[in-house]
Amino acid sequence: QHVDNKWVSSSSEIIAFRKALLNPVTANQFQRFVSLKGDLLENGVLFWQEVQKYKDLCHSHCDDSTVQKKITAIIDCFINSAIPPALQIDIPTEQAKKILEHRKELGPYIFREAQMTIFALLFKFWPKFCKFQSNLASDKILLALEKKKGKKMRKKEG
Q: Where in the numbering of this chain does the RGS domain appear (predicted)?
């Protein structure tokens, strides 16, 4: 559907993408696919998955210290990394600051805005991935992506 020069996705496409991110095999293939498109996109897939695990943890009513450890792990890995750049995912710095300010507030929504930002960003690559994937047997996808990555690396070097 085309509305005011913006592509509007159907809810079935959004649901399919969400299911793909929750499927370890498809998510890994998609992660490799987007890694060829931009440096932080690969981390975006991991971030989205870790936030889902965090939300599951919140809903499982486990103890606060476990929830706090998961918040800290996500922040240390993606939002305020010891490895430069500190922000390892493609979100606005205001969103990152907000997460850091609210890091002591337990509950499933601390990463909500950032997760939605990442989801929207990654979703732009979903149709291209589906097209790429449709032309290959599932066991050939990772091999094809490795070849593309090799070509990209050789271009950078030479």
A: 16-122
